[in-house]
Amino acid sequence: MRFVPVPSTFLIPLLLATMPALAQRSGIGIKGGPLAAHTRSAVFSSQYVPGATAGIYAPILGGSRFELQPEVLITAFGSGHTSPEGERYSVRTIYAQVPLSAKIYFTNTINLQVGVQASKLILAEQTDPNGSSDITGSYDQNELALLLGAGADLRSGLDLTLRYHNGLTPILVNDNALFPRNQAMMLTVGYRVFAFRAPRLPARRR
């Protein structure tokens, strides 16, 4: 059976015709929102503390039911603790994060999200009744995490997302016993301030 090549004069108009659909939702947006975070460990328990996240995202439409979304965020995590003596203290951490999520759409609006995230520690600070102290040196500078979530992308350009962050790597350095990992639930609101547009084709002369 001999392969018959498809003429380029047919392929080029076909590819150009599909570009408006691929560019319909692709763009760049800003997002932010509150979160609740703590550290998970088999050795000790911690309490959730409030935090926040903010940054930019760039959804890239890959089909009618699929979207790939890279982001760049600044996020405040943390956890609350109680010492064996009953003294309460908290730890706050700030990360620069680069999430990458795949979004599967069940309708034109509702989607399920799964992704991975690499984070870089900026600051770690402990606060107790005696004051605050910088403990950045006690924390690992890098973190990997798994992301799971659900979202609603509205026609107005607003994107609502509820996301679960599950840390995959321990956050302390030189730790052979505790192995704490970040966990968080976050609710964000995004707005696509810029949309990519497919190029206009020149009008056909009659």
Structural write-up:
By secondary structure, the protein is mainly beta. It has one domain: Beta Barrel (Porin), CATH 2.40.160. The protein is built from one helix and ten strands; from the N terminus they run αββββββββββ. The protein is elongated and about 60 Å long. 7% of the residues lie in helices and 59% in strands. The N terminus and C terminus are likely disordered. It has an eight-stranded antiparallel barrel.
Index terms:
disordered C terminus; 10 strands; 206 residues; 8-stranded antiparallel β-barrel; Porin; mainly beta; elongated
Low-confidence spans: 1-24, 198-206
Q: Which shape, going by the Cα principal axes?
A: elongated
- The number of distinct structural domains comes to 1
Q: Strand sequence of the main sheet, in spatial order?
A: 1-2-4-5-6-8-9-10
Strand content: over 45%
Measured distance between first and last alpha carbons: 40 Å
CATH fold group: Porin
